[in-house]
From TrEMBL:
Species of provenance: Leclercia adecarboxylata
Transport keyword on record: no
Keywords: ATP-binding, Hydrolase, Nucleotide-binding
Top-level taxon of the source organism: Bacteria
InterPro entries, A to Z: CT_A_B (IPR003778), Cyclophilin-like_dom_sf (IPR029000), PxpC (IPR052708)
Carboxyltransferase domain ranges (all copies): 23-222
GO molecular function, one term: ATP binding
Keyword Nucleotide-binding belongs to the record: yes
Name of the protein in question: Allophanate hydrolase subunit 2
Pfam families linked: CT_A_B
Length: 222
């Protein structure tokens, strides 16, 4: 079991995503930084898309209630295990009763705590991911809060030593490809997409990015 001592601002259970239900209005969900999730899972011997904790902006504490292995990936959060520094991107052993604390990240926003065996919550529509809009999946369909306890599946492998991998660095660039509706916009609107500066809107979510920045609205072809 994993006990949530301090849940932080926005911590939830996420996996590789809920695939195949968008036609029914159910979003993909899943980890926002999927490479970080997969690296963490692989380090501790899990399947790449197994469930882990997605932690936004750190500021949380967890207590392990059983021996095992864990990996912290994604944003570096000045983490400590019983006061000893924890390296991001490393598989490390843990004993029952030890506490892991994450402070605010120095770079990035989201960290992932993967535990050998994976977080054990009920599967909903073939996924363990939390969908906050619908209130399903994860732990009771909500963000984690202080005092929650999560079951952890038995680890499939026995490790001998700690091991780490180089972390990918986020460079703040978002790749854009023309979609099916691209040619429905006039030439000026198409040029604006590539020429003008854009920012991610606070209205962005796990389903997709919404961009803001251009003053003139897009014009469709007549």
């Amino acid at each position: 079991m994993l006990k949530i001592i301090r849940a932080g601002l926005y911590t939830s259970v996420q996996d590789g995503g809920r695939i195949g239900f968008r036609q029914s209005g159910i979003s993909y969900c899943g980890a926002l930084d999927k490479p970080a999730l997969q690296i963490g899972n692989l380090l501790v011997g899990n399947d790449p898309d197994d469930a882990a904790l997605e932690i936004t902006l750190g500021q949380c504490t967890f207590e392990f209630e059983q021996d095992g292995w864990f990996a912290l990936t994604g944003a570096g959060c000045d983490a400590h295990l019983d006061g000893a520094a924890v390296w991001t991107g490393w598989r490390l052993p843990v004993k029952a009763g030890q506490q892991l604390t994450l402070n605010r990240p120095r770079r990035g926003m989201r960290s992932y705590l993967a535990i050998a065996g994976g977080i054990d919550v009920p599967s909903v529509m073939n996924s363990l991911s939390t969908d906050l809009k619908v209130g399903l999946g994860g732990h009771e369909g909500r963000l984690l809060k202080d005092g929650d306890r999560l079951a952890v599946r038995p680890g499939a492998r026995a490790f001998i030593e700690a091991q780490g991998v180089k972390q990918l660095l986020w460079d703040n660039r978002v790749r854009v490809l023309p979609g099916p509706e691209y040619h429905e916009f006039d030439k000026a609107s198409q040029d604006a997409l590539w020429r003008l500066p854009w920012q991610l809107s606070p209205q962005s979510n796990r389903m997709g990015y919404r961009l803001q920045g251009a003053e003139a609205g897009a014009q469709y072809r007549a």
